[in-house]
Design brief:
By secondary structure, the chain is of the alpha/beta class. It has helices at 14-28, 47-76, 89-99, 119-127, 144-150; strands at 3-7, 31-38, 81-86, 103-110, 135-139. The longest helix is centred in the middle third of the chain and has 30 residues, at 47-76.
Length: 151
């Protein structure tokens, strides 16, 4: 089965990337892998405090994921999997793609402000020539109706 790898973060554009991945998976018989990355600098505290912060970060991610997962299951009949990694975002994305041979497409959401598409897309584009899979960039302000039409 081919999986669509989508990144879960706190950005607004993440929503359209999730929608796109779920709709494409539903229509192509694929799956969705949702990857969330905890930055390493979040835990540079005493060991006990760092462990509590790590657990809280994982809990926030799981709650955030469940919102998307419920929609994917109910509306698209797709049961996504959640992967949580710790480290530098682009490094962890590339590592996961290498480790999971079922991942067939990376889906990223582009920011709509004038600062550019976002740091994740900027970092990923620099690696685009060596990515082992294609990448799709979904505009953050694309309507749900337009997404449905193109998927």
């Amino acid at each position: 089965m081919r999986k669509f790898l989508v990144i879960l973060d706190d950005s607004r554009e993440c929503l359209n990337a999730m929608r796109f991945a779920a709709m494409r998976a539903a229509k192509s018989g694929g799956g969705v892998a949702v990857l969330s990355i905890i930055p390493p600098d979040e835990f540079n505290h005493w060991i006990g405090v760092g462990e509590v912060m790590r657990a809280e970060a994982r809990e926030r991610i799981e709650v955030h994921f469940e919102v998307f997962a419920k929609w994917m299951r109910d509306k698209q009949n797709v049961d996504p999997e959640l992967i949580i990694r710790e480290g530098v975002a682009i490094t962890e994305i590339l590592a996961h793609i290498e480790e999971d041979p079922e991942v067939g497409l990376l889906v990223l959401g582009a920011a709509t402000d004038k600062k550019g598409p976002g740091p994740l897309i900027t970092a990923t584009i620099k690696q685009a020539g060596t990515l082992p899979i294609p990448m799709t960039i979904v505009p953050g302000d694309m309507s749900k109706e337009r997404l449905e039409a193109i998927t």
